[in-house]
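User: quick one, sequence for these C-alpha cells?
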C-alpha cells in the first residue's frame, strides 16, 4: 500500500541574491532529498466523499499531490498545509511528492478507500510495552482511517492513523486503562474495538558489578557475551521479543510454557564457575523454573552422558526486577558442568506467563568486593558515627582488642575506607573511658558488611554503665545483647539497620563501650565492614 521512491529532478535551480560576487550565491548541491514522507487521510462521515489529505515529511518545502482519480492536474501545497478533495466511492492510489528547496523529489504512494458503508473485519493489535508504553495497530475493510483513544484523559483528542501504521503512547502513570479503536469510513456508521490493558513502570534491570574475568555471560550489556545458537528453540512453547528498556537490551517471553536456549555449537565450560545468575521481571508469574543441561563430551542430547537439573522458584516477586543467584551446587543432578548446552526457562501459569529477562550469566564468587558500600544519606545531626567516610567519626580506642580472635586490615574499596576481618571468630571494638558512647537518644544501630563465606553474623553491644568497668556478664551495672543474622547475603554489600529496641537486654545505652562482631564458620570467615554508626 505504501511505496517510497527517490527521484532527482533534472533541472537547475538558480538563486539570484541581488549582489554581484560569486560568494553571494548559495550552493544547494549538498542538500539531501526529502525523506520520511507519509500522509494521513481523513474523511467526513456525511456521505460527501470529502477527504482531507495531510502530508508529512522532512527536508521539504512543498508537496505535489496526485489524487489518483480523474482529476487531470495535481495540486501543490506548502509544508504543514492540508488539502480537501472530493472522491466518489472507490479505491484510489494517491501519489504525493515531497519537494526540497533544491527541487529534489521523493515519491510516496498510499491506498485510499472511500466507502459510505460501515467498516467491517476490524482487527486490532494492542501491545503493552516497557515503561508504561503501549502500541496499537489496526486493519479493516471499507475504512478510510482509524482513531484510537488511550483512556488516560476523558477529554482526550483521539490519535488518527492509517492502516499499516503503528501508534505508540506512553502513559504518565502505571495502571489499568481502556483503549478504544474506531474504524471510520465516509458514512456515519463506524466499527469499534475496546480492550482493557495494564501498563507498568518497567525500568532496566540492575547493572551487574562483577568483574568480567569472573563471568561467562550469555546475555548482558555489561559483559562480552559468548555465542548462543538460539534464544528460542523450535520445540519451545513461548513467544520471544527482543526489545530495549531505557536503552538496555532485554528479552521478553510471552505466552510462556517453556523455552529452550541452546549453546550446542559452543558449549559452555562452567567447571570453574560457582553460580548461575539471571534477572527477571513479571507481572503474573506464580512459579519460575530454571533447568541447566550438560550434554557431555559427545555434544548430543540423549547420548548417555547427559546431566541436568531444574530449580523451581515459587511466587517470585511481581512488578519488580528479581535478581536470581543460584549456587551451581544446588543443581544437584548437574554432576558435570563442562559441556552445558541448554538453558530452559519455564513459567506458571503455563501458556499465559510473561517474563522479561536480562543479565544471564555464570560467575565465580570473588573474595573481594569491587564496589564501595552504599553511601549513607542520613543527616549528620541524626548520627553518632564510629566509622564512615560520610561523617565525622567519634574516637574509638581500638578496632581489634587484644582478646580478639581475628586479623584486621585497613584498606580501600573503590576509594572508600573499609575494615577487613579475616580468620574471624570474634573481634572486640572498644571505646572506653571518655570515649564511651551515649546512644540514649539514638533508635538504631547500622553497619554494612560484605562476605563471601560467612553463613552467620553476630553483633553484640555492651554498655559498661557509669563505672566504665567490665564487671562480667550479668554482673554490676553492665548490660549487653547479641543479635544473630543467619544466612546473610554473600558477595554483595548487606546494609544492617537494627532497631536498638531489638537489643532487648541492653536496657541502658548511655555508656556503650564495646561492639563485638562474630561469624560462622568460626576462625575462617572473612568480613568487610563499613559505615558503623548509631542514628535516630
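Assistant:
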Amino acid at each position: 500500500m505504501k511505496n517510497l521512491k527517490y527521484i532527482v529532478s533534472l533541472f537547475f535551480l538558480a538563486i539570484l541574491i541581488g549582489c554581484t560576487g560569486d560568494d553571494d550565491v548559495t550552493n544547494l548541491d549538498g542538500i539531501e532529498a526529502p525523506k520520511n514522507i507519509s500522509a494521513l487521510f481523513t474523511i467526513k462521515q456525511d456521505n460527501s466523499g470529502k477527504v482531507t489529505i495531510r502530508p508529512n515529511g522532512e527536508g521539504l518545502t512543498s508537496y505535489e499531490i496526485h489524487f489518483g482519480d480523474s482529476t487531470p492536474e495535481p495540486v501543490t501545497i506548502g509544508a504543514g498545509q492540508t488539502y480537501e478533495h472530493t472522491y466518489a466511492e472507490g479505491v484510489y492510489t494517491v501519489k504525493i511528492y515531497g519537494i526540497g528547496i533544491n527541487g529534489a523529489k521523493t515519491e510516496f504512494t498510499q491506498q485510499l478507500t472511500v466507502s459510505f458503508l460501515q467498516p467491517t473485519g476490524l482487527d486490532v493489535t494492542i501491545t503493552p510495552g516497557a515503561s508504561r508504553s503501549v502500541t496499537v495497530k489496526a486493519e479493516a475493510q471499507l475504512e478510510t482511517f482509524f482513531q484510537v483513544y488511550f483512556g488516560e484523559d476523558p477529554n482526550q483528542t483521539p490519535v488518527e492513523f492509517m492502516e499499516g501504521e503503528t501508534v505508540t503512547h506512553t502513559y504518565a502513570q502505571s495502571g489499568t486503562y481502556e483503549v478504544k479503536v474506531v474504524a471510520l469510513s465516509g458514512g456515519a456508521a463506524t466499527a469499534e474495538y475496546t480492550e482493557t490493558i495494564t501498563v507498568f513502570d518497567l525500568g532496566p534491570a540492575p547493572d551487574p558489578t562483577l568483574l568480567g574475568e569472573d563471568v561467562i555471560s550469555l546475555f548482558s550489556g555489561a559483559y562480552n557475551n559468548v555465542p548462543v545458537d538460539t534464544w528460542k528453540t523450535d520445540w519451545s512453547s513461548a513467544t520471544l521479543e527482543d526489545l530495549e528498556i531505557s536503552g538496555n537490551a532485554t528479552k521478553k517471553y510471552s505466552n510462556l510454557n517453556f523455552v529452550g536456549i541452546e549453546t550446542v555449537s559452543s558449549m559452555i565450560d562452567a567447571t570453574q564457575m560457582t553460580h548461575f545468575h539471571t534477572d527477571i521481571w513479571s507481572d503474573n508469574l506464580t512459579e519460575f523454573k530454571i533447568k541447566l543441561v550438560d550434554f557431555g563430551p559427545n555434544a548430543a542430547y540423549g547420548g548417555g552422558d547427559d546431566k541436568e537439573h531444574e530449580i523451581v522458584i515459587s511466587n517470585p516477586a511481581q512488578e519488580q526486577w528479581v535478581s536470581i543467584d543460584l549456587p551451581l551446587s544446588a543443581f544437584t543432578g548437574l554432576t558435570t558442568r563442562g559441556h552445558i548446552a541448554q538453558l530452559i526457562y519455564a513459567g506458571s501459569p503455563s501458556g499465559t506467563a510473561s517474563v522479561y529477562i536480562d543479565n544471564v550469566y555464570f560467575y565465580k564468587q570473588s573474595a573481594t568486593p569491587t564496589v564501595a558500600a552504599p553511601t549513607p544519606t542520613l543527616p549528620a545531626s541524626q548520627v553518632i558515627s564510629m566509622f564512615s567516610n560520610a561523617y565525622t567519626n567519634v574516637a574509638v580506642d581500638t578496632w581489634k582488642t587484644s582478646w580478639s580472635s581475628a586479623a584486621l586490615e585497613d584498606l580501600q574499596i573503590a576509594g572508600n575506607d573499609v575494615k577487613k576481618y579475616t580468620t574471624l571468630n570474634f573481634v572486640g571494638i572498644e571505646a572506653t573511658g571518655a570515649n564511651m558512647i551515649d546512644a540514649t537518644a539514638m533508635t538504631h544501630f547500622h553497619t554494612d558488611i560484605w562476605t563471601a563465606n560467612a553463613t552467620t553474623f553476630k553483633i553484640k553491644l555492651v554498655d559498661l554503665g557509669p563505672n566504665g568497668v567490665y564487671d562480667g556478664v550479668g554482673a554490676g551495672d553492665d548490660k549487653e545483647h547479641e543479635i544473630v543474622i543467619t544466612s546473610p547475603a554473600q558477595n554483595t554489600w548487606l546494609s544492617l539497620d537494627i532497631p536498638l529496641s531489638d537489643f532487648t537486654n541492653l536496657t541502658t545505652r548511655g555508656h556503650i563501650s564495646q561492639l563485638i562482631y562474630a561469624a560462622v564458620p568460626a576462625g575462617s570467615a572473612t568480613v568487610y565492614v563499613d559505615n558503623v554508626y548509631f542514628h535516630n
